[in-house]
Here is the input.
Amino acid sequence: MIADPLEAAGEPAAAPDEAPRQRFILDDTGFDEVPAKYRRFYRKWRGPDDSLAPNEVICPVCSVVIRSTRELRPGDRVYCMPCMSRLVVTRAASGRLEALVAY
Amino acid sequence: MTQANHGAEPHRLEPEAFLEEVHSFEFWFQAVSGYLPGRPYGHAPETLDLPLEPRLRERLLTVLANYCVGERAALEGASGLVAIAPNHQAKIFLSTQVVDEGRHLEVLLHRMRELGVADPEAEVERRANHALVMFRRRLLELVASKDWEAAIFAQNVILEAMEFVVFQTHARRADPVTREILEGIVRDERRHIGFGENELGRRLKQAPHTRPRLAEIRRELDPLVLASFEETLAEVEVPRAERPELGRSYLAAVARLGFA
Here is the structure.
């Protein structure tokens, strides 16, 4: 995964008091449980030695790592296609980004 | 290889478009195309099938027989649920689940044959765990009574969540062929548990009065599934100390639905 300093066309502008979001180019990690065009947006959690990048959260339903092309922030909507869940990003007490299921 | 195209970013889909996409047969077909080809009966032909000591083979057969009971319950349950599903999306998704469950049952029976069982059907009957058989009977009663919420809860939350965890745990300790078969099944189970939790979550939001009835179903069915999987975990020699950890993901799912 490579940080991309360029903003994508069509990206909503950041609020005036917010720093611009970091952008990411996603590579294919071999995740094969969704159609090919979506595969780079997901990866497997590799266990206790793994860590999340600023554009990643773990799906609380199926434990797959969900990836975005932009840095994630609280309030963002993400989807876990492998388990069909709609999620909202929040910041946990630990400071880490988490995803909550939005039924 | 990196790609600069953001066009397929799923998180930009509108919520309804996302649901339409992931419930579709087209999505299912393209998803399983990623991991099923080249694995007839669930594993690559070249995967080494190591001979098992008689004691381990015996234990594995009991475990596989009970996986067959669970998969048969899910196959019969999912097929019945197609008829009572409340909308086309759910019907189409459940039709893909029926295909998945049929495949699981087939590959597990085939694995028993690979291990030298001449009549797997009879072996499943002989080794079936009583609690799991009771669970299957009760699940099919719920489906027959057209109780959508209760049947989805029993099948796609209780049964599938337990299978999801048990199969993953067993896969880490299994012989190479069994491991590959279980890993393939787990990939499918991810969709099934997600469908169950999300469908039920949406229904409970619209009809919170169904919650006490589902809590009652949980009290009745939880012990049946837990007892059978406890036995399975003992058969695959998961240390007792690790077993509470296994229940955690199931308990987290029911807690998210408000049944803690």
Notes: Strands of chain A lie at 2-4, 23-25, 42-44, 56-58, 64-67, 77-80, 85-91, 97-101.
